[in-house]
Amino acid sequence: LPLHKRPRQTIRGASLCCVRMRSQLMQALGLRPTFPPQTSRAVLLLCFACLALVSHTTALSELRHAEDNEYILSTTSKRQVDSFAFESNVTLIRQPGYCMVKYSNASANGNAIPAFYNGPAFAQPSPMPFCSDVFPNGTDICCTIEQLNALQISTGQQAAGLLSRCPSCYRNFVQFWCLFTCSPNQSMFLTLNEVNAQGVATRVTTNVNPTFANGTFESCDQVRLVDGSSVMLIFGGATNYETFFEALGNTSRDTRQLQIDFSYSNDSVPGYLEADALPCDATCSCTDCSESCPPLPVEANSQGGYFDILGLRVSLLAFGTALAGILVGLLLIILALIFLCTRPEKLPSDQSHNIEESPLLKPSGSNGLSHEGNHGLLSFMNRMWSAWGRIIARRPILIILACLAISGLCGAWIYKIEIETQPERLWVPPGSLTADAKAYFDETFGPFYRIEQLFIVENTTATGRYAQCGNNCSIFTLDNMKTILTLQQNLTAIVAQYQNNSYSLDDLCFRPIKGKGCLVESELGLWHSDMTVLTTGCLPDGNLWLPGDQCGPSCDFNMCTVDDEFIRYRVRTCSRGPFNPMCLNEVGVPVQPEVVLGGYTNNSYVNASVLAITFLLNNFDNETLNGPAEAWEQAWLNYLSTQPLAPNFTISYMAQRSTQDELARESSGDIVTVVLSYLAMFVYIAFSLGSFRRPYFLFSKYLLGLGGIVTVILALIISVGLCSLFGVTATLIISEVIPFLVLAIGVDNIFILVETYSATDESLEVEERMAITLSRVGSSITIASLSEAAAFLLGILTRMPAVTAFSIYASVAILFDFLLQMSFFAALLALDGHRMKARRADIIPCCTIEKSSSEYEQVSENDNDTTAVNGSTEHKPKVNGVVSMLFDRFYAPVLLHPVTKLFVALIFLGALMVAINFAAMIPLGLPQQLALPSDSYLQQYFTDQAQYGKAGPPVYFVVKGPHNYTNADGQNPFCSLGLPPLGCYQESLVNEYTVRTRVDNPVFVGGLSSWVDTYLSYLRVSQACCSILPNGTSCKFDTANPSGPCQPCQTAADLGPAARPNPENFLKFLPYFTERQCTQDCASCGEPFQPDIVFDYTQPNTSNFIRAARFRGQHAAVPTQDAFIRSLKDAYNMTDTLKAQYPGIEIFPYSVFYIFFEQYLYIEKVAILCIGLASLAVCLVTLLLLGNVYLSLIITAVVMMIEVDVAGIMYLWGIDLNAVSVVNLVMAIGISVEFCVHVSHAFVTHEGTRNERARIAVVEMGSSVLKGITLTKFVGVVVLAFSRSQIFQVYYFRMFLAIVIVGGLHGLVFLPVVLGAIGPRPRRGACSLF
């Protein structure tokens, strides 16, 4: 019998052979079948002796994967075995020293079979080949040398390959089988239930001490297999000792004829099978025994920042800010009441006040060029801008041509622009951990493969199956598998064209094992992705997958019956032991159910409703080499876009190139949105700059509005050209954000210039009016622009490439926008003044407009006159336009009323307190769906991935070599066998990984696949796994000829007490290990670890032979951005702990997504640093130019309030913190300065009381701020709401809208109230503190 090839099929064949031989022989002899005569009995005995030998001696204690009981019961009825119930009237001897079964030489070839024997135990052989630790020398036993040899092979070798990593489990397991088979007290706990006609036992009941049974189960419960899964999967997923022992004795586990039942009380028998079970923490490591683990790690700050009040969990930050808000509010109310109750109705005229607190406003000089509050630097700047205004008015054409020439010269370098689109080069600073890790991993192990994945979901309502199974329908039916396999085969057969060459999957695929085929991760790998195998249940080599005799004694395609139940049976059995050689896919790789299945709960894989199929292609650092793969991916996508499955299936899919393709499509689609946004702002600017006075086209300013847009465009051209010249890489964010930023800042200045010019005396010459205009607002524009440019420029200190590039581009653009406004646009304004002076039409300046008698004269006698106020003269600011009139007559008086001030202060401070709490809770990340068009096919894929995905990306722990693995000190940090001092370190990498899988909400799943563990196990059970001939070639050890030429690689003497090889043998047998394939008799195989070990063949037989190595694990499902970030943090925390524990080891974690999420390890610090540096720049520049510490602090404080409030809105509006939002927050600093500086400058350069100066500041600058920034930006932002891009909708529309609204409210409501209440005095010198 070819037992070594097909033992199970041989047993079936022998069984049928024996039964048929007996029937034919009896028929030939004319014997009746009631009780066989001696002749028939002899024939049967000969047959059954062989059968019993195979079924018991090779399978009694053999560890096999448990099969599904329910399905098996439906097939075992086909087995016909002659047996009879054991006679109940037989008197049994039940006392110590007596056997119940004897394994004797009853067969023709001398092999042992179990037979009834209720006699005394007999002397043990010498030496004992096995069980010597259980039965001391001289102890009688109930088994022969043949059975001991069989136990040594099945239990001593095959079980050792699975259980020896936990010595306690292996010892208890061996102890059980030795006692069951050979105990001299067998009659005390063993009961024969059935024997067959030849006296061979077919069913027994064993009474096991429940304490021993439970101890044995608990010692093995947490033992891990090679793939990191639990060994209990082999025992039917046992959860207690009863189900564990039931799996051991169930005949459905294999084809042996002896069924072992178990009982756990001595009601029917006098004794127990019992012994002392060794607990797992006595010898087993943390990986196989949680009792040996150090305390579970607690997430940092998991309980910090909270405390209990009246049974409620309260945030310390929320409590603190609420308390501070209440105290500040009470203080403001008290101060307001004191002020209202104590202030006099009128201020006495003789009350001594400083000049700056006088209720009188000093009029400007006759020419309006100076304010009495201007001194020092401001006075110098006023004179400078006045002179510059005169120059521009005299030679506007020359200034315009010079500006255009400079812009063209700078813009000529745009051709050198380099746009960076690789995320790892945008968001990861040079020298970062993940960038270095990726570079080393790609160079050493090769780049991470390209991934093409699809999810297949069955719509059971379309097929009518919903009525049968509801929401628990399994996708595993034969018809479904045929349909999906056809799809997979069609995808595999795709051929793509690239540069006149054809490329198939075989040309491009990733091959994890040398010499094997392409790796396609699919549940259909259980059937080798072959339609014949799927429909027949037979492997190409003839091995059977069906249980029982469903296919007869051989793999006869005509006899096999495959149905839905068999499909589920196959899934069930292989999900319990993916590393079972019968469950490997066509390339010898295990099919991991967590990776290829979805839509199930509690590891009930057979109830999965979703199948995932993943194609893996080779990847290259050189993008040009990926051209053929990208072409194949495009063909793959084109095929799937046709929805090739029936309507009852839903397919979602993604290729490696998909994200980049969709982002490019999104960017091109958003061009229209950006253009419309600019067009809307241009139309608004053109209407707002002009006036509705008659004649309309004389006072309209369409050309001037167009000139303002051109000014912004020229600033962008100069910025891009100069940055390209100096090699500053551009990004897509720059193209999307900076135009809006420059336009927002530039338009405000344009409105200020135009309105200030319009407010001057129209009777003056253009030169005089330009001098007055630039003198009045030039200083404030300078302060604002330099503050913004400095604020952005400091962003380069963050070292994040995208933020650095944005900072440089924005700073240069704002600086040149300021220069062009004060030159190019000012020249256009002067030309427009000359046009109006000459009464030429706006759009067609060649046409003149005659002055009519009914023409409205705007200049009012009261505009520049003084009026009596309390016997004094008060200079009223000139009101130009309806908005300014509304500010003067209604808004300013109401806003600066004492009651209004109090309410404004309370509301804004309360909002600040709330925003502080919300800002601290902003989640990190950039959801992938937001970065894609809303109509992208990837939207459904990411939704399915989050909903159905059960396993996250693989994670590798890479040890940078060379590292000396040849001795115990080098092995112990990376293994988990045993406990110190002879075993591995308790804080080893494998044990630490295991600990982290047992915490709540873990980021790792399964076990860490350690080649060191497997290699040590491989050498320990070398007779089964590693045997060699004298010439050094591998061979299969022959247990029937133990002294033959094929000998084990290592003996117990070679390994020593620690079971470790010496350095020479460690290196000698390592190549054998990496070539060892997984087989039924050797689970400690090394072929799957080939990609994990990199050898330096220039240094063989040295400790530097292993140049680098990696250890494979699996992240838990990562459905959210927070899950990605937590996974990255925990992986680095684990390696940092290991490096601190064992100095000298260079190790780092690597997963394909790490480089994209490293920014979130420090994005909060980057945001705080950027905002802090920008605010510091604002404070310093305003202090330098305004010369007032107090006012600079007020401006900075209001800008920071705007930032905090915007951050609070981010949390409420679902805007995560990432590089895009950080850039927007920095941009908000620049826009916020515009809201504050102009009002503050007007306040400090006038004289009078605080209220009076605040009112003038609001009237003079409020209109420009409202129309120039708030409404202009609002018009442009609203257009973004209609973008197809969700990233535009969320990060630009929402954030820009929040910045505009919050900034406008603070600049036009809160700041005037603060200035009117506690603002600084007018300037009296070059610099003042208050």
Outline: elongated
Q: Specify the structural class.
A: alpha+beta
Give the biggest beta sheet: 5 strands, antiparallel
* Quaternary state of the chains: single chain
Indicate the low-confidence ranges by residue numbers. 1-87, 106-111, 251-256, 300-304, 344-373, 546-559, 858-877
Radius of gyration: 43 Å
User: What is the mean predicted local confidence, pLDDT?
Assistant: 77
Number of helices: 42
Can you characterise this structure?
It is a single chain. The protein is an alpha+beta fold and 1330 residues long. It has 42 helices and 24 strands. The strands form eight sheets. Strands 9, 12, 13, 14 and 15 form a five-stranded antiparallel sheet that branches. A hairpin with a 2-residue loop joins strand 16 (866-869) and strand 17 (872-875). The longest helix is centred in the middle third of the chain and has 37 residues, at 801-837.
Concise structural overview:
With 1330 residues, the chain is an alpha+beta fold. Helix 23 runs antiparallel to helix 26 (801-837) and helix 25 runs antiparallel to helix 38 (1159-1186).
Blueprint of the fold:
Layout: H1 7-29, H2 38-57, H3 69-76, E1 83-85, E2 101-105, E3 112-116, H4 145-163, H5 167-182, E4 190-196, E5 201-207, H6 210-220, H7 241-249, E6 259-263, E7 306-309, E8 312-315, H8 316-342, H9 376-394, H10 396-411, H11 423-426, H12 433-445, E9 450-458, H13 460-463, H14 466-469, H15 478-492, E10 495-498, E11 501-504, H16 505-508, E12 520-521, H17 531-536, H18 564-576, H19 593-596, E13 597-598, E14 610-617, H20 627-640, E15 649-654, H21 658-689, H22 696-699, H23 702-725, H24 732-759, H25 766-793, H26 801-837, E16 866-869, E17 872-875, H27 882-895, H28 898-919, H29 938-948, E18 951-960, H30 968-971, H31 989-997, E19 1004-1009, H32 1011-1020, H33 1022-1025, E20 1027-1028, E21 1047-1048, H34 1052-1055, H35 1063-1075, E22 1093-1095, E23 1106-1116, H36 1121-1141, E24 1147-1150, H37 1154-1157, H38 1159-1186, H39 1189-1212, H40 1219-1244, H41 1250-1280, H42 1286-1318
Parallel strand pairs: 5-6
Antiparallel strand pairs: 1-4, 2-3, 4-5, 7-8, 9-14, 9-15, 10-11, 12-14, 13-14, 16-17, 18-23, 18-24, 19-23, 20-21, 22-23
Helix pairs in contact: 1-2, 4-5, 5-6, 6-7, 8-28, 9-25, 10-23, 10-26, 21-23, 21-24, 21-41, 23-24, 23-26, 24-25, 24-26, 24-40, 24-41, 25-26, 25-38, 25-40, 27-41, 28-39, 28-42, 38-39, 38-40, 39-40, 39-42, 40-41, 40-42, 41-42
